[in-house]
Recover the amino acids of this structure.
């Protein structure tokens, strides 16, 4: 900056000299010219591009003025910012134009040029700063690039490249694995579909087979019982003819023993419980009797026989169980109703007891 | 994941079912019945009897036999047997234990997760008591379902694609 201002001062001082010279030559224009010059600041080059102002005090013939104008027109011809001045200079009549006018033109040109120069200077300034920055940056980069750092970077790049390569290999392997797994999954899905279809079919068939089995399960047993049926027919027929009750009873007994035998072979076991202790696993209490004749819990009566089919309980025995007779209690008159009343008192809402009472 | 069983704890009978291959299957008791009488008895020797066996000895042992415990669920009712008091939850848990043991014997694998049904009119404490009973019996009670809801679900289990109204008549004792 200081250099620029210096040059501006220099140029302005030169203009001053010029204008003061002009005012010295021509008094008429001295006043106005004296006012203006200090404001005008131009560069050194300006005098070269602009012709010398016409000397003041000299009488200038129209020819000279015309020459001046021509010179001025020439000098501003190539300056874009002075385009506005061109028509005026060209249309000026050398006969009527005063030196003041001419000076005015020059001043205008000067001002415009000065402005342009200022602009250019500020631009240059900016460029210089930018250049400085760029230079610094470039020098920095240069330094960085210079020696070891670039080696490190190269190494790093190589390392990353190899890493990327390794990763790509991994990705490929994984993709392959994924594909094989997908295939496996689809295989399994297929298998499951087939198996579930198989299973549904199997279940249907099993269901039908079961139904059939249940339907004809009694086939064997019935075929074994058929002789019993035949014997009954015979017994009825002969008893009708003979009217012999004793013979008939004997015959029925025989048939019964035959049937029993068949059923025993099938695995039917009657539960003989009279005199045993009550066991809820095989017996069902239908009633209790208060008595001291037997120990409490002893079965005194087998009301309905129970049966086991092999080891499975087919039907529990319905039994009457002894209950110890307590002296303090007043014995109830009807022993059969003891169970029902007690049960009803204990559980008045139980429907089961009512049902059993009905039996 | 283990199988989830559905249990209906009834006033007189209880039953348990499991979904096998998309179809509900009622699991029979070891006695061979599809239903477990909701009866708990304590024999004179102190043995605990549950189900069919308890029902058979109920008449000779009424003061130590408990029936219809469901009616007392969610109340402070206590059953006193041999100077020991039992809550309705505990008695129900005994029934559930028997059901669990029988079902495990039938299925051949342990069961833990269960859904238990309760009447639609059951209030919160009754539902909570039912849930507690399941927990005592060793079940992980996933849900408590209303009985009519369960029936509707069972009815519509194979008719999911159709949408039709249905009337539900609760006839249980």
């Amino acid at each position: 900056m200081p250099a620029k201002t210096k040059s501006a001062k220099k140029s302005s001082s030169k203009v001053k000299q010029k204008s003061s010279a002009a005012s010295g030559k021509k008094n008429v224009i001295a006043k106005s010219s004296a006012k203006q010059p200090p404001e005008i600041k131009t560069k050194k080059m300006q005098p070269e591009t602009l012709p010398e102002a016409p000397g003041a005090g000299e009488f200038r013939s129209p020819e000279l003025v015309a020459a001046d104008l021509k010179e001025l027109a020439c000098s501003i011809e190539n300056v874009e910012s002075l385009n506005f001045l061109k028509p005026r200079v060209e249309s000026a009549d050398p006969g009527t134009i005063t030196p003041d006018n001419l000076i005015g033109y020059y001043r205008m040109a000067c001002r415009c040029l000065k402005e342009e120069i200022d602009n250019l200077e500020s631009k240059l300034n900016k460029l210089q700063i930018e250049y400085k920055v760029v230079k610094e940056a470039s020098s920095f980069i240069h330094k960085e690039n210079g020696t070891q750092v670039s080696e490190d970077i190269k190494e790093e790049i190589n390392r990353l490249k190899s890493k990327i390569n390794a990763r790509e290999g991994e990705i490929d392997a994984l993709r392959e694995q994924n594909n094989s797994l997908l295939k496996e999954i689809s295989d399994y899905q297929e298998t499951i579909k087939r198996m579930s279809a198989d299973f549904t079919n199997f279940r249907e068939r099993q269901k039908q087979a079961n139904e059939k089995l249940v339907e004809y399960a009694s086939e064997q047993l019935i075929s074994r019982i058929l002789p019993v049926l035949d014997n009954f027919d015979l017994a009825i027929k002969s008893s009708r003819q003979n009217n012999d009750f004793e013979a008939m009873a004997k015959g029925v007994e025989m048939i019964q023993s035959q049937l029993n035998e068949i059923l025993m072979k099938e695995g039917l076991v009657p539960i003989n419980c009279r005199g045993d202790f009550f066991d809820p696993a095989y017996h069902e209490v239908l009633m209790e009797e208060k008595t001291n004749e037997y120990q409490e819990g002893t079965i005194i009566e087998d009301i309905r026989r129970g049966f086991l089919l092999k080891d499975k309980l087919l039907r529990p025995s319905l039994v009457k169980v002894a209950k110890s007779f307590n002296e303090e209690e007043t014995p109830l008159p009807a022993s059969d109703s003891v169970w029902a009343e007690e049960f009803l008192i204990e559980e008045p809402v139980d429907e089961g007891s009512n049902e059993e009472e009905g039996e | 994941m283990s199988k989830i069983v559905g249990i209906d704890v009834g006033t007189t009978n209880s039953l348990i079912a499991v979904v096998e291959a998309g179809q509900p299957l009622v699991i029979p008791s070891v006695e061979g019945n599809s239903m477990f009488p909701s009866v708990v008895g304590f024999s004179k020797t102190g043995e605990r009897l549950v189900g069919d066996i308890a029902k058979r000895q109920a008449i000779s042992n009424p003061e130590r036999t408990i029936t219809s415990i469901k009616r007392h669920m969610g109340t402070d009712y206590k059953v006193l047997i041999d100077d020991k008091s039992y809550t309705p939850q505990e008695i129900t848990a005994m029934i559930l234990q028997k059901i669990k043991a029988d079902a495990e014997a039938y299925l051949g694998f342990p069961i833990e997760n269960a859904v238990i049904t309760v009447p639609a009119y059951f209030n919160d404490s009754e539902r909570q008591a039912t849930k507690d009973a399941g927990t005592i019996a060793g079940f992980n009670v996933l849900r408590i379902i209303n009985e009519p809801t369960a029936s509707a679900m069972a009815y519509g289990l194979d008719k999911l694609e159709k949408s039709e109204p249905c009337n539900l008549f609760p006839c249980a004792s």
The mean pLDDT of chain B is 90. Residues 88-107 of chain B form the longest helix (20 residues).
